[in-house]
Amino acid sequence: MTAESPSQVSTDAVFRLPVTVCRITGFLGEQTSGALQERAVASTGDRLKPSMIRDRELDPDLRRSRSCPDFEAPELLAAVEDVREAVEHTLGVDCQYTESSYGLNVHNDGDFYRPHQDTSVDYAPRRLLTFVYYLHRTPRPFTGGELRVFDAALPLHTGTTGAWEERTWRDWEPEHDSIVFFLPTAWHEVRPVVCPGKDHADSRFAVNGWLCAPDPAHRADNGG
User: Fold this and answer.
1) Which of these, 126, 190, 206, 214, could form a disulfide with 113 (CB 3.0-4.6 Å)?
2) What is the domain range of residue 209?
């Protein structure tokens, strides 16, 4: 048997490229992560709003969770800055002069977020890096809620990107005090959460954030 030459490879052939995810466990340590978890659990009532897509639309078929956009986590941002250079090197992105944007997302029983990207040409084009930091009670009081990151699927003979439905994937566990970094262009989803008790304190808490390129309009307003 002889191997086929490249010219004999089907034009329908697709190759799949694993998307790089940087994951760090034990990120803030027991004391700091515990304090941040208590702050997350205390975010209740009017502070929590139904999560939106593109920051302005409700679509319960695509996303179901609650969000607290004014959640404060300065210790997390400081730790992200400490590992930024290593993450940049691994993911091939430069975030040296970026601005941070983040909020708290709370998933309880039946909540999910269908496959999506964090950036596009007409929405959030300044996002350069996504990070997700996880908090929950231990032992974990829920199941599910994995971060599913889809591999890139590229037709072998064209420059276009395959449909995300055709991709393979890897699931990442939402382990307490762990953080993941990946490029905002990666297709990803939050798998459905099962939380039988439905207690708010038993939820899957996550600080979702981005490092974004500075807004050119702001630089103009500031005279440079």
Assistant:
1) 190
2) 13-215
Q: How far apart are CA 24 and CA 92, in angstroms?
A: 17
- Judge contact between 210 and 185, C-beta under 8 A: no
Q: Which of 12, 135, 22 is nearest to 83 (CA)?
A: 22
pTM of the shown model: 0.89
Q: Into how many domains does the chain fold?
A: 1
Neighbours of 216 (CB within 10 A): 9
Kindly state whether residue 1 falls inside one of the protein's structural domains.
no
Tell me the per-residue pLDDT of 31-75, one tens digit each, with 9 for 90 and over: 999 999 999 999 999 999 999 987 788 999 999 999 999 999 999
* Rounded Cα distance, 31 and 191, in Å: 28
Tell me the pLDDT tens digit for each residue of 114-143: 999 998 766 678 999 999 999 999 999 999
Helix residue spans in the chain (DSSP H): 30-41, 74-91, 216-221
Q: How far apart are CA 130 and CA 180, in angstroms?
A: 8
